Amino acid sequence: MSYILRVYQKLLSRFPLGMQAVQAGTLMALGDQIAQNLVEKRTFDSLDFKRTAGFAGIGFFLAGPATRTWYGILDKYIGSKGGIVTLKKVAFDQLLFAPVFLCALIVVIGILQGNEIDNIKLKLKNEYPDILVSNYKLWPAVQLLNFGIVPLQYQVLVVQTVALLWNTYISYRTNRDKN
After folding, report:
1. Burial (CB count <10 Å: 0-12, 13-18, 19+), residue 1
2. How confident is the model at residue 178 (pLDDT cuts 50, 70, 90)?
3. How would residue 174 be classed by pLDDT, with cut points 50, 70 and 90?
4. Cβ(156)–Cβ(66) below 8 Å
5. Are 146 and 155 in contact (CB under 8 A)?
6. Which of 30, 42, 93, 108 is 20 to 30 A away from residue 174, measured at CA?
């Protein structure tokens, strides 16, 4: 196990954006599969692997790179240590990044579902407020711990690990009218 951890740390230090994109894609795909298997209780024959691939793509191309870049910006301009720094990072993260990212996520999922722009707008109107409120029930506490004690290179991993639950919720919420 220590060998795997050393290889992971080496790859993470050499390719931080790429590794965090891969782990975000993997964990978002896993979150979708949890939603399909455990929440929606689909049989193997009815699993939507295209949907899972879409979530993997969102993690790889959007969530991983966006969060890694955002955390780097916060670290550069706000700092990396101290209680006030942590509170500022959480405030910026939850008041600036989270609302925009959630909106982008819903739009991208809608596009991947093949929805027309009017349907995506309707989904934003109907789903976005509840998803944002749910975000505020979970993520500020997670980010307090993440920004407060986790080194920058592991912050995306922490968030994406906690996001297994969150991605399951997002997958379910954005696909419940598709079942």
Report:
1. exposed
2. low
3. confident
4. no
5. yes
6. 93
